[in-house]
Prior knowledge:
Layout: H1 18-35, E1 39-41, E2 50-52, E3 62-66, E4 69-73, H2 90-115, H3 119-125, H4 135-140, H5 149-171, H6 175-181, H7 183-205, H8 213-221, H9 227-252, H10 275-285, H11 287-292, H12 296-307
Amino acid sequence: MCIRDSVEVIEVPTGITQEDVDAAVAAAVAKVQAATPATPVRAGAGEPTRARRPRERQSITHKFSIGDHEGYITAGKYKRIASQHAPLSEEGRAEIQASVDYLYEIFVGQVAKARGTTVEKVLEDMADGRVFIGQQAVQAGLVDGVSTLDGLIANLKQRAAGVAANQNQGANMDLETFKAEYPDLVQAIAADGAAAERARIADVEAQALPGHADLIAQLKADGKTTGPEAAAAILAAERAKLGNMAAALAADAPAPVPHAVAPVDIMLSADDRPVAERAQAKWDSDGTIRKEFSSLGAFTAYLKNHEAGRARVLGATQ
């Protein structure tokens, strides 16, 4: 068994022989072997019996002495990092200080949680290393009060009875009793409710449109309509209003004017005779033409201008 990496080196005084050191180390090794018994391993026929050490063995520090001096065999880097038989090393001091700081951090956190305050407050007033006596602890916020044990037990019983009574009373409490017993709470609730109602009314008023004052007043008074709901109601009322106006205008409109009778076709575009002959023939056969034009010459001039594209009869199809 190799213990070279886990042996603490000690100063050996003069006058101690190597045989003394070997004997002391052998005795320590024997103690380690005795503390971790071997597990027999079955051997084949004609073979010696072997022994196997357990995979996991307890960490133990073994003490030995040489003459008037003592030493230790240890396993693990931090095993006996601090010893009463040797000066405290810087590494040992740092390890011990780290453990103390960690425990102190846990303690401060638990005090802050139990007293309902902050870690900073605990460090400043409660956990700076001072010893508080009686009223001093109360003033620092570390305890609730000073009492005898019998008084504390009686107080806890009274508190428990009061909590149970309040729970039973709350189940059957009416509004008037609630107002009488919790006036400050009732006042705070009323103030919050009034502020919320004022905000609701202001939101409803912001949705107003001309012609819908009655609807806005109704929505303000119902105690529940919100601003967005009021906007939707106002838009629906406005659509209905405009629809009614359109229907009324359609009902009041006069009847449509009938189309005028198409004018008589005087173009004579299908006749390939000279304009003067066609004009003379139309003049002689159509009394309407004679009423419309003052003379045959005027009618002839009109036909010439029409065929040249310089005149047009309104309502004509050609």
